[in-house]
């Protein structure tokens, strides 16, 4: 069974530029998550989708971050404009439904210079 | 509110020695508890989870953890460390069914000395 796929794996951008990350969850998983992991810290939830609806985006900095899951399958996370403090690993994860085990992708590593 | 505290950001053990990684949680409802492992440049892999069944939970790669409600702890152990166990380990808590957003600790980096 294929795992959670993410791209790109690595990205370096200058501050104030924009970046987008893509995620394809495990087939059949209705719940999709984006986590931000800053170096030396544990992952922090940015946004949670159930199918194509947002369940929780309370920790998403909405002035610069946006995410969508239009067809209830793959998802895109966008940052515009990027700040130095956005340098982190962005982890996508999915679960069959709320309450089931969450499976993580390998992450997209962002460096803002 | 839920939170997790992992005592010790770095732990070093000799190969073959006992591994003990500490995790204490805070939760206003009966928690679900998890241990994830992260190898360099990789995502998080589930080691084991506690979901209100048996208090001693066995996971992959010989790891196990015991839920102790009186101590609000969920420490991770392995009887004999292997070089391949060197990684970052994260403890996480959720409210369980109906709301499974994971709240992670800051992680413990395990070094295994040959």
3D structure, described in words:
The complex is a heterodimer of chains A (113) and B (114). Chain A contains no helices and eleven strands. Chain A has strands at residues 5-7, 10-13, 19-24, 31-37, 44-50, 53-56, 65-68, 75-79, 88-95, 103-104, 108-112. Chain B has strands spanning 3-7, 10-14, 19-26, 32-38, 44-50, 56-58, 64-68, 73-78, 87-94, 103-104, 108-113. In chain B, strands 2, 4, 5, 9, 10 and 11 form a six-stranded mixed beta sheet that branches. In chain B, β9 and β10 (103-104) form a beta hairpin. The interface between A and B is medium-sized, with 24 and 23 residues.
Labels describing this entry:
heterodimer, A: about 110 residues, four-stranded antiparallel β-sheet, globular, B: about 110 residues, mainly beta, five-stranded antiparallel β-sheet
The profile of the biggest β sheet of chain A is:
7 strands, mixed
Rg from alpha-carbon coordinates of chain B: 13 Å
State mean pLDDT of chain A (0 to 100 scale): 93
Counted beta strands of chain B: 11
Low-pLDDT sequence parts of chain B? none
Structure class of chain B: mainly beta
Beta-strand portion of chain B reads over 45%
Short synopsis of the structure:
The complex is a heterodimer of chains A (113) and B (114). Chain A has 113 residues and is mainly β.
List the helices and strands and how they pair.
The complex is a heterodimer of chains A (113) and B (114).
Chain A: E1 5-7, E2 10-13, E3 19-24, E4 31-37, E5 44-50, E6 53-56, E7 65-68, E8 75-79, E9 88-95, E10 103-104, E11 108-112
Parallel strand pairs in A: 2-11
Antiparallel strand pairs in A: 1-3, 3-8, 4-5, 4-9, 5-6, 7-8, 9-10, 9-11
Chain B: E1 3-7, E2 10-14, E3 19-26, E4 32-38, E5 44-50, E6 56-58, E7 64-68, E8 73-78, E9 87-94, E10 103-104, E11 108-113
Parallel strand pairs in B: 2-11
Antiparallel strand pairs in B: 1-3, 3-8, 4-5, 4-9, 6-7, 7-8, 9-10, 9-11
């Amino acid at each position: 069974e294929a795992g959670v796929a993410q791209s790109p794996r690595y990205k370096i951008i200058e501050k104030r530029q924009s970046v987008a990350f893509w995620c394809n969850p495990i087939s059949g998983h209705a719940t999709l998550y984006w986590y931000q992991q800053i170096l030396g810290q544990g992952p922090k939830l940015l946004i949670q989708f159930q199918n194509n609806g947002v369940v929780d985006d309370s920790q998403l900095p909405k002035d610069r971050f946006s995410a969508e899951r239009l067809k209830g399958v793959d998802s895109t996370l966008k940052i515009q404009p990027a700040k130095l403090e956005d340098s982190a690993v962005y982890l996508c994860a999915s679960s069959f439904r709320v309450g089931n085990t969450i499976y993580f992708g390998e992450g997209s590593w962002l460096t803002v210079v | 509110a839920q939170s997790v505290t992992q005592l010790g950001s770095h732990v070093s053990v000799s190969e073959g020695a006992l591994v003990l990684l500490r995790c204490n949680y805070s939760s206003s409802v009966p928690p679900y508890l998890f241990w994830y492992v992260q190898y360099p440049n990789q995502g998080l892999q589930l080691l084991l989870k506690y979901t209100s069944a048996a208090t001693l939970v066995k996971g992959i790669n010989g790891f196990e953890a015991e839920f102790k409600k009186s101590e609000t702890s969920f420490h991770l152990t392995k009887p004999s460390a292997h070089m391949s166990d060197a990684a970052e380990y994260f403890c996480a808590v959720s409210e369980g069914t109906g709301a499974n957003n994971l709240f992670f600790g800051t992680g413990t980096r395990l070094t295994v000395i040959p």
